[in-house]
Every structure is written in structure tokens, then in C-alpha cells.
Design a protein that fits this description.
Radius of gyration: 52 Å
CATH class of one domain: Alpha Beta
Strand content: 25-35%
Strand order of the largest sheet: 3-2-1-6-11
CATH architecture of one domain: 2-Layer Sandwich
CATH topology of one domain: Dna Ligase, domain 1
Number of helices: 13
Shape: elongated
Number of strands: 43
Largest sheet: 5 strands, mixed
Length: about 725
């Protein structure tokens, strides 16, 4: 801070069109302005706030300095501001896997700084050039957790977190060209600020900076924007359109050269605007009509400004303060309020009448275009931006404290990748249990160990010139490890009786199709199934009787053809009923397993009915009633050349032959007596039995065919 005994405070506002210089003496009740000088550039040595011709700008500064020195004496130190239009904004995004770890404050701050680092690299075009930019502020645009937007990451758990920020950067060349021009004019930069910060110092006291306000400096070629919130400046922006666009629109509407249009624009309050167009016609236009002709251009300018404010802020601010010569454009506050959806009284032009901290303000500085030079003087007195030099490890890092500097700022400026400081979380295990996807997180990686001048610190710890920062990267987390039994709910064993003995049936556990024990370590992307067996085949396997449904094959020949027969080795019953492998078992069921008898030919014939032809069934009418005789086998068998029957055992290699009995090949009348008792038809006085087939007399050996009509009677 400048004391009352020091030389006058010299503030210099180097603009695109003019250079404004003032000297002031600090007093108890504020600054007293002693002298003011304003000079215009004769050439385009300044473009958009950037010095393009250092010798010409230095010469203009030298002339302005000489005029002031005639009034106040020698001047050596000066306070200046870098133009807001020189600021660059860029978005950056950082994504980090957190694998279920809880996000602590340092991790969230690290994610923001990582996104800011990415924005600076994006702006520079490559990593090597990123150091050419100083970060002067940033704001968070959006947090996401597992792809879903979230208000605050602190304390949250998830698999993946991301942060998107919009950062504002000042190219080093801007500061370096300012210093070079001052040095050429025999001046030393004593204090540096940014034009938006200077204006905020002048118009927005610290007590108001908690509010979300937008300050818009509408100049000739650009409109510079600064946003405040939470007690500080959070974002800067610029629109490459301002007062000159209004002038050019008037020139086109009324056929005027630029200077004439500019003069007419400044006289918009007159009842009648007089000018001569490029065709030499003298015109007199009523003031309201002239103002109305500006409306489309004003609407276009307010649209661009509103769009930039919303992009930087994410929503309309609480209020908008307009400064700069272009802010006097008629209709601009009202149009901007409409574009932002704000009440008209929330967008207002601010002039130096609202600047506190000066005993008296000269008429030459009154108006909204005087805010910035006055703000530069106040910023130099209250919060001059100085260069801070800190050591990060063994390297020196130079920082401009446009805002409160932190260890995070120093690490970024030192070219340290913030991501590399945080240990990565251990790899997670992704498993599917019973069709449901589960994630088992690894242990979280640790954050960096940071020491500031030997004491523990965090990324948010403030730093000042001369500080020494030491950083040790965090450790990676351990990969996830667990057993299957840690992931599945407890399963009760099934208990059954096998041949009268109680047997427990444990749960079945499979991983990737292979049966494993419950204490088996889980592998990544495992497919896990766990269940109590219900089918009889599984139960018998688990109680040590997997052979209960085993079978053996017997190969033999049948009438010269090779055949095989599969015969069970055991007979299995469940609760006294023959059971199949897929039969469902319940707790307490009784299972009996007995050895099956040796196979015989009849077993094979039963399973192969197509190999058992016999006499077909017969249906005839007897005495007016239908009678059915079931079919029957009429074969004999030989095994290995010897007589055999259906009870003969089957053995591997046997040679079986069917032998047909032709004499029992047809149905005859006597076969009916199997189902009809002739004596039951006999009257008491009858003596002889008679048979007719289809009306013809027949004997007991007369053949029968399906559909025959038989009559049996006594005489």
C-alpha cells in the first residue's frame, strides 16, 4: 500500500483508442486526484488491448508522463492493467475412475485442477506452450458421477467422476509487452491488475462480491465481461462486438462515413440529429427516429453479450453492471435485460458517481468510461497484483497473484500433471451373480503428500512469494480381492435319507461353468451361480452316489444285425416310487438304491416293441356282440444255436435268431373260447354244439378274420 509520504500514485489505462493517466495522493479519507491526462493513439499501435507497436505506445506514454510531471513532479512507478479483451477462456474436462471410493475435498479439488490443466493445454495447442499462459480464474461448469450430473462431488461414491471447468487465462506476452512499453518510457511496473478486476474494485465493494453479478465493459471494439460470486471473480469473457458495430450499422442505414456516424451516435439525445451523408445531402432526423434505427444492431449486440454471460455463468446473474463508453448506447440495458430474462431494473449503466474511495473526481473522468482508470488506482492501493516466486521441489516458479494463489496454482504453473499426484484406485472386480451384475471396488488410491515450508498442506493452501513446496505422489490402491462366499447369501444344506441313512446335500457353487468351493477367490468378469440342488441326479452325485443312474451297454446280433441294449446298473426309487434323474427332491425325502437284476431278452423286447411282431388283434361279432381278442407273440427264439425264451440272459456277443411258429399264425374258432365259455350258452335240454361263420356252418378250426359274424348255439 502507498503511504501518505510517498510519491503520487500513478495509474495508467492503456486502451485501444486512448491512454488515460492520473496521479493521486492517498489520504485518510481516500485518494485525492491531482492530475489527469488523456491522449489518443495516432496509429493502430494497439489492437484489442494488445500492444502491437511497442515503440509508438511507449512514445505516447512518455508524452503523457511528461505532461503529468509538469503538474506533480517526477514519476517513476506506475500501476497498469492488462486488457480484459486479452483474456482467453477455454473449457477443460477431467475424468477419473474412483471405483466406489468416497470423494474427499482434495480429490475433488484435484479433479478441478486437472480439468483446468487440460483447458490450458487445449488453449496453448500443446503441452510445451501451456506455460505461456497464466490462469486468472476458473469456475466449475458441471460435475458428473457415473454419467449423471450432480451438484457437488464431495462425499459421493461412484465408479467414475468428472469435472468440467471454464478457465480464464492471460497470455504472458500481454504482461511482457506492457512491461517493455513502460520500460521504454522510463517507468517501472509497480502494480498490475486486470481491467475487469479494476472495474470491480471501483464499483463492487467486497461486501457485494458474494452476489452473482456480471460486469460488462462495453468499449469500441469489444465488450469485456467479468462475473463475481462467493466473494471473488469467478469468470471472464469477451465478445468481439461493441460500440463500433452500432456506429457501422448507423453508417449503413444513413449512408454516412464512420466518423460522421460516430459523432451522430454520440448526439443521440438531441431532439434533432443533423449530418451530411456521403452523397452530400444534409439531413435532419428526429432524435427518436434516429435512436430507433439503432435498435436492430443494439439487439444483436445484447444477444451476443447475453449468450456469453450465460455460457460463463450457466444461468442469468442476479444483476448486470454496464460500464465503458459503449454502455451509453440507447436501449442496450433494456435489450440485455430481455435477453437474460431479468427485470429491467437489474441491468444498469454505472458511472464514476458510484465509485467510492476518491475525495473528488475530475469532470474528465466522469461517466462510465472513467471507471477503469479509477479502478486501476484503487486496485494498486488496495490489492496490487505482484509477482510471487515459489519453489516447487528444486524448481522456481513465477506466479501473478491476480487472485489468492494456492499450491494447486503453483503446481500447474510448474508443469506438474495433477492426475499423476493421485494414486489410482485398485482395479475393481465386475462379477455376475445369478444374472445380477455386481462391482467389488478396489481400495482407493491415496492423495499426494504435500508440505509447505515443511508443514503439511493441501492443494488449496495459500502460498506467498518465497514459499517452498514439496510434493510426494500418492500410492496406488490395491486391486479388489474377495471369495465367492463373501458375495453370496448363506444357503442352507438339504438333508435326505439314502437307503435309510440321513445325508446332508451342500449348496452347489459354479464360477464360469466350473464347480468350485465357496472359499474360491473371485476372478474379474466371473459368472457365478450358487444354489441348493433339487434334481435327483445332482443330489445323488453330491451324497457320493453318482453311479446310481449309471448304465452298461450289451452288444449282440439279432437276426444277423448288430444291435445294442443299455441296461441300468441300479434301480432308484424316491419315496417308494421309481424315479428319473430329473425328479425333484425335497428335504426329508427317502431314496432307495438297489442293484438291478441281470438283463434278459424280455428287457430288450420291451424297449424295442418294433422288434416284437405277433398275431394282430381280432374283432368279430359273436351272437350279436363284439368280441376282441388281443394280439400275441407267436415266435420262438434261439441263442447261440440253442433254444431260448424271453427270460434268457443277454450277454455281449450273443447271436440271437427268431423262429416263427406257422401253425399258430391264424386266429381260429377255438381261440374264441379263451373269452367265451360254450357251456355258459347251453340250455338244459341241449345235446349238440354248433358253429356258423358268416352264415356257413363251421368247425373249431375254421379261420377267423376281423369283421366276421359268428354264431354259437346248442341244439
Amino acid at each position: 500500500m502507498v503511504s501518505e509520504k510517498s510519491e503520487p500514485l500513478f495509474a495508467l489505462d492503456i486502451g485501444t483508442r486512448t491512454v488515460v493517466g492520473l496521479t493521486a495522493i492517498p489520504r485518510t479519507k481516500g485518494l485525492t486526484i491531482k492530475a489527469v491526462e488523456i491522449l489518443e493513439h495516432q496509429t493502430r499501435s494497439m489492437l484489442d488491448g494488445q500492444i502491437h507497436d511497442i515503440p509508438r505506445v511507449a512514445e505516447l506514454i512518455r508524452r503523457l508522463k511528461a505532461r503529468l510531471e509538469k503538474k506533480v513532479g517526477p514519476l517513476r512507478d506506475v500501476a497498469v492493467a492488462a486488457a480484459g479483451r486479452a483474456l482467453k477462456t477455454c473449457r477443460g474436462k477431467a475424468v477419473r475412475a474412483v471405483n466406489g471410493s468416497r470423494l474427499e475435498a482434495d480429490a475433488v479439488r484435484g479433479l478441478e485442477l486437472e480439468a483446468l490443466e487440460q483447458a490450458r493445454r487445449e488453449l496453448a495447442g500443446d503441452e510445451e506452450s501451456a506455460g505461456r499462459y497464466h490462469c486468472v480464474g476458473y469456475s466449475v461448469v458441471e460435475y458428473k458421477l457415473d454419467g449423471t450430473t450432480i451438484g457437488n462431488l464431495l462425499g459421493q461414491r461412484g465408479q467414475e467422476a468428472s469435472a468440467e471447468v471454464i478457465g480464464t487465462f492471460l497470455p504472458k506476452v500481454v504482461v511482457e509487452s506492457l512491461a517493455a512499453a513502460l520500460e521504454a518510457a522510463d517507468l517501472q511496473m509497480r502494480a498490475l491488475t486486470l481491467e475487469p478486476i479494476a472495474a470491480i474494485h471501483a464499483l463492487i465493494p467486497a461486501s457485494m462480491r458474494k452476489l452473482n453479478l456480471a460486469l460488462v465493459d462495453v468499449g469500441a471494439g469489444t465488450s469485456d465481461i467479468a462475473l463475481t460470486a462467493e466473494g471473488t471473480v469467478v469468470a471472464y469473457g469477451m465478445v468481439p462486438s461493441a460500440g463500433d458495430e452500432i456506429t457501422e450499422a448507423l453508417a449503413e442505414t444513413w449512408l454516412l462515413d464512420f466518423d460522421t456516424a460516430e459523432t451522430a451516435k454520440r448526439n443521440w439525445r438531441d431532439a434533432e440529429i443533423r449530418f451530411t451523408d456521403v452523397l452530400g445531402h444534409s439531413r435532419k432526423v428526429p432524435g427518436p427516429e434516429f435512436v430507433q434505427s439503432m435498435a436492430p444492431a443494439v439487439d444483436g449486440l445484447s444477444e451476443l453479450i447475453a449468450r456469453e454471460i450465460l455460457s460463463l455463468n450457466g444461468r442469468p446473474p442476479a444483476a448486470v453492471l454496464l460500464i465503458g463508453g459503449g454502455s451509453l448506447t440507447p436501449g442496450l440495458p433494456e435489450s440485455l435485460a430481455r435477453k437474460l430474462g431479468l427485470p429491467q431494473d437489474r441491468v444498469a449503466v454505472r458511472s464514476v458517481d458510484h465509485v467510492a474511495g476518491f475525495a473528488r473526481i475530475p469532470p474528465r473522468l466522469k461517466g462510465p468510461d472513467g471507471v477503469t482508470p479509477l479502478g486501476i488506482a484503487l486496485a494498486a492501493l488496495e490489492h496490487p497484483v505482484q509477482t510471487a516466486t515459489v519453489r516447487v521441489g528444486s524448481a522456481e516458479v513465477h506466479l501473478f497473484d491476480f487472485r489468492d494463489l494456492t499450491i494447486g496454482d503453483a503446481l500447474i504453473q510448474a508443469g506438474i500433471h495433477i492426475r499423476s499426484l493421485f494414486g489410482r484406485p485398485g482395479a475393481a472386480l465386475t462379477v455376475t451373480i445369478g444374472g445380477e451384475r455386481r462391482v467389488v471396488p478396489g481400495s482407493p488410491g491415496s492423495g499426494p503428500e504435500i508440505r509447505l515450508n515443511g508443514s503439511p498442506a493441501t492443494l488449496d493452501s495459500p502460498v506467498t512469494s518465497g514459499d517452498h513446496i514439496e510434493v510426494r505422489p500418492g500410492q496406488n490402491g490395491k486391486d479388489a480381492r474377495c471369495r465367492i462366499e463373501d458375495l453370496i447369501p448363506p444357503l442352507q444344506s438339504l438333508s435326505v435319507y439314502v437307503n435309510g441313512v440321513s445325508q446332508p446335500v451342500p449348496p452347489r457353487v459354479f464360477m464360469n461353468g466350473h464347480r468350485v468351493k465357496p472359499d474360491t477367490q473371485v476372478v474379474d468378469r466371473a459368472m457365478i451361480e450358487a444354489y441348493i440342488p433339487e434334481q435327483l441326479r445332482d443330489v445323488l452325485e453330491d451324497v457320493g452316489r453318482p453311479e446310481a443312474f449309471s448304465q452298461r451297454e450289451i452288444h449282440f446280433t439279432w437276426n444277423g444285425s448288430s444291435v445294442q441294449y443299455v441296461h441300468p446298473n441300479w434301480i432308484v426309487t424316491l419315496n417308494g416310487v421309481a424315479a428319473e434323474p430329473g425328479t425333484v427332491v425335497a428335504a426329508g425325502d427317502r431314496i432307495e438304491i438297489v442293484e438291478a437284476p441281470p438283463p434278459v431278452l424280455a428287457d430288450w423286447l420291451v424297449t424295442n416293441p418294433e422288434r416284437s411282431p405277433g398275431r394282430p388283434a381280432l374283432t368279430v361279432t359273436v351272437n350279436g356282440q363284439l368280441v376282441r381278442l388281443d394280439g400275441e407273440d407267436y415266435r420262438a427264439f434261439r441263442c447261440n444255436g440253442r433254444p431260448a425264451d424271453p427270460g434268457t440272459p443277454l450277454q455281449d456277443g450273443d447271436d440271437w435268431v427268431e423262429v416263427w411258429d406257422e401253425q399258430v399264425g391264424e386266429w381260429i374258432i377255438s381261440d374264441l373260447f379263451r373269452v367265451i365259455d360254450p357251456e355258459g350258452l347251453r340250455p338244459a335240454d341241449a345235446r349238440s354244439f354248433h358253429v356258423e361263420v358268416n352264415g356257413a356252418e363251421a368247425t373249431f378250426t375254421t379261420p377267423l378274420h376281423t369283421g366276421d359274424n359268428v354264431r354259437l348255439y346248442w341244439r
